[in-house]
Amino acid sequence: MNDEKGSKFSRRSFLKGLGSSAIGTAVVSTGLVKTDPAEAYSPETSGAARAQKALNLKVNGKHYKVEVEHRNTLAEVLRDQVGLTGTKIGCDRGECGACTVIIDGRNMYSCSQLAVWMEGKEILTIEGLAKGDKLDPLQEAFIEHDGPQCGFCTSGQIMSGKALLMKNPKPNEAQARRGLSGNLCRCGNYNREVAAVLAVAAKAR
Amino acid sequence: MAQAPREFSVVGKPIPRIDAYERVTGQAQYTGDIQLPGMLYARVLRSQHPHAKIVSIDTSKAEKLPGVKAIVHHENAKVPWSSGGQTHQRFIFNNPVRYVGDPVAAVAATDRHIAEDALKLIEVKYEKIPHVLDANEALRPDAPKITPNGNLSVGKGSASAPIEESWGDVDKGFSEADRIFEDTYISKHVNNAQMERRVSIAKWDAGKLTVFASTQGVSNARTDIAKDFGLPLSKVRIVCKYMGGGFGNKNQAQDYDYMAAVLAKVAGQPVKLEFTREDDYIGMHGRWASEQRYKIGVKKDGTITAVSLDAVTNMGAYRKSSGNLSGTDFYNIPNFKKVVLPVHTNTVVAANYRAPSYPQSVFGFASFLDQIAHEMGINPVDMFMRNRIQKYKSKTPFTSNFLEQCILEGSKRIGWQEKWHKAGAMGGQKKHGIGMALGGYPFRPGLGAATIRLNPDGTAHVLVGVSDIGTGAKSTMAIIAAEALGIPLNQIQLTNGDTDVTPYSVGESGSRSTSFTGPAVIAAAEDVRRQVFNRAAGQMKVKAEELDLRDGEVFVKVDPSQKMPLERIVRNAGELIGRATTNPAFKDVEGKSFSAHFAEVEVDAITGHVKITRYVAAHDSGTIINRLPAESQIKGGVTQGIGMAFSEELIIDKVTGIPINPNYRDAKVPTHLEVPEVEVIFIEHIDPFGTFGGKVVGEPPITAAVATIANAIFNATAKRIKELPITPDKILQARQV
């Protein structure tokens, strides 16, 4: 524990006020189980002293200079450093699609892309879809067709839908479903999200 | 309760959510999107043992990691976590740990990766204790005791007690039956799996705790936190503006809110504590698994004479909710006896998930009723129609009951009479099936509060405590306010979800926002309208009672040409504020929303794969306040039911007690590819006790979905799968009946 922090606050006095009660703690030294070995993490390679790499990110047509660690994903750099929090992280393991952004024209899970891979790439996020006050037609369709329930997957659904429409402006229903199928919606609003994509497609016909 | 007008001006139309723009542009700020200066990031270390004493925790290596600012565990943070009320009290860190996933420690650091690194440097010595994972085994006298009371969970008091309910005389009912059937149905633990992982941000300012929580109920979260931290309510502020789903597992305050608060206090800096997706699957709760043993007596024509249900529900290591089973709620059962044993095991906690006690037991009971219809040669639609509930417990009337119309309209829409066939009667590889079941959810009124401020320009500001977990509750409240005030919806601003600013709300759980807070919004509107009319009466030289307000204009009812803009009246007053706290109650009536669901499936006889080809959901929820999100709610509930029917189950390793599939991919939530178009029918009417005639919408749609699909699969295959989820291997291995 960092000393200067520890001295600011007496844990004992704090916890006294919490109405705590004793929990039995019989000490028997059997069944020792270690979590992962500590050896892999030394203060030199881990923690706040880790090496940073300067990176030039191009997001929604603007350039951002950021300092990242190799382990930082694009999703976390967009959210924590660039300040574009419209991209959500639902699983952080490439399953749910809430973090979907468009990279060089393709919809991709930004939680599964390292930020250091992004030099020289064009990244489009939900914040970059509207032209000033003018919403993208797919955003308008999402409003009209009640695309978001809780809204947490919505950015990803829209970005996958947008990537599909960029490649194929007139998808049929099966193609729309396939195009969005990497994006989970636990509110179960799949009918609405597909309807919104098809509404934009219908206008393109 | 407010008198419902016959003609609505805003209510009942399909209106886009008032915050839809923010939600489609990425501007909606969810809890995890909030960044505070100096904020630390926290992660949780969890037990890898299903039952063990913590002998020691050595955090010295973790503390040396640069960037680590605070580490808390059971020795230095003995904070009780008693939210949920019905529980045996637990702490945010427990010793012994009682399931794989029980929190052991939490670390706050300058970056989330450092916090994760630090977890790996904490050395914990455990002493293993014998464990029990199976609910039936847990009830044996020699089973390891998970609580001092044993493994039968405590009831409302402090003693272990089953949930018991009965009326009529079941022995007499069974003696009157022509046939008696007995069978057992099984459901599994299913996680709520909302898209937003659990996240909480806590900060302390001069002894005042602010928690930006991802909670379904800011008021209840404040009460829980204040009680458990020993703080006055005035020193706790809970804020939740946008919320990424919960479906019942973000009710009130949860342990991660507490952990963030303790870490923030220790570190002297704001702390954001975020669960990983795996944490979310194992560290909170899902729907309780159940074993349901039914005995059903019926007359020759299929009329039920008696039902007994003996059941065991697996609540996991801690009790947070009822553990009840309510699937019999939609049937007329003259003689009934139910005994449910909520049992503790050394597994992930089970508690509220959308209509907590319903879909698993609707699956059991409606599957069994469908089976009985088959064995007696009765068409299922006749069986369900004959036995549908008409009065609560066969005696108390409902505020309204359009279940019959749900069955009629739904069966007509899907073409039941033309399409139904005897089970397994269709040849070929892709076998057609059609099935149905009944569902719904209790509707009851209760305590609500609202404030409405009329601005000098004639616009209004509505303040309500409700969360909006995706149901559209904010929009619903704004629509109710617009309707009740007589002011256009686009001139209403709404502030929600901040205990320092907004009045009390029960929280968005139990489908209660509209029925609890809705009446308060109407009453607050009436309060401020009275003030407007009293002021206008003098200026317009009429009596206040002669005035009405619509489209932002005050006018004389008998002569609408005598009118005055609202803003002129309010401008002179500075502002006008309407307030109301309402607490309506039912007397000699019961409330319920009802539904009848219908599905057609195609079962591949070679692969066991099931495709839903059509789905019709007919609902009686009274007046539909806002058709657009209401239909989305129905579609969403059915979608979650599809997951529960086909694939979802948290699987616990039978030896180690470790959950082996705590993630979206392996727990198999439905995707775009499995979900058909869900056709929604609302049997609309004005419920005399509803908010503008509206009952409840959010929870009913999941209740009947699982059983509906199961019955359609039976109709296709003549195979009755009695254990969820209904996977292809179960279908292939089952024998035809």
Q: In terms of topology, how is this protein built?
A:
The complex is a heterodimer of chains A (205) and B (737).
Chain A: H1 3-8, H2 11-16, E1 53-59, E2 62-68, H3 74-82, E3 100-103, E4 106-109, E5 122-124, H4 137-144, H5 154-167, H6 173-180, H7 190-204
Parallel strand pairs in A: 1-5
Antiparallel strand pairs in A: 1-2, 3-4, 3-5
Helix pairs in contact in A: 4-7, 5-7, 6-7
Chain B: H1 20-25, E1 40-46, E2 52-58, H2 60-64, E3 68-73, E4 80-81, E5 90-91, E6 103-109, H3 112-121, E7 123-128, H4 135-138, E8 163-167, H5 170-176, E9 179-187, E10 190-191, E11 199-205, E12 208-213, H6 218-229, E13 236-239, H7 255-267, E14 271-274, H8 277-283, E15 286-287, E16 289-298, E17 304-316, E18 336-344, H9 359-376, H10 380-387, H11 403-414, H12 416-419, E19 430-442, E20 448-454, E21 460-464, H13 473-485, E22 492-496, H14 513-540, E23 547-550, E24 553-556, E25 559-565, H15 566-573, E26 576-582, E27 592-604, E28 610-620, H16 627-646, H17 664-667, E29 678-682, H18 700-703, H19 705-717, H20 728-733
Parallel strand pairs in B: 1-14, 12-13, 17-18, 21-22, 28-29
Antiparallel strand pairs in B: 1-6, 2-7, 3-6, 4-5, 8-18, 9-16, 10-15, 11-12, 11-14, 16-17, 19-27, 20-21, 20-26, 23-24, 24-25, 27-28
Helix pairs in contact in B: 9-19, 13-14, 16-19
Task: Describe the 3D structure.
The complex is a heterodimer of chains A (205) and B (737). Chain A has 205 residues and is an alpha+beta fold. Chain A is built from seven helices and five strands; from the N terminus they run H-H-E-E-H-E-E-E-H-H-H-H. In chain A, helix 5 packs parallel to helix 7. Chain B is of the alpha+beta class. Helices cover 27% and strands 26% of the residues of chain B. In chain B, the strands form eight sheets. Chain B has a seven-stranded mixed sheet with strand order 3-6-1-14-11-12-13, sandwiched between helices. Chain B has a five-stranded mixed sheet with strand order 8-18-17-16-9, sandwiched between helices. Chain B starts with 19 loop residues before the first helix and ends with a helix. Classes of the chains: A alpha+beta (205), B alpha+beta (737). Chains A and B meet through helix 2, helix 3, helix 4, helix 5 and helix 6 of A and helix 1, strand 2, helix 2, strand 3 and helix 3 of B.
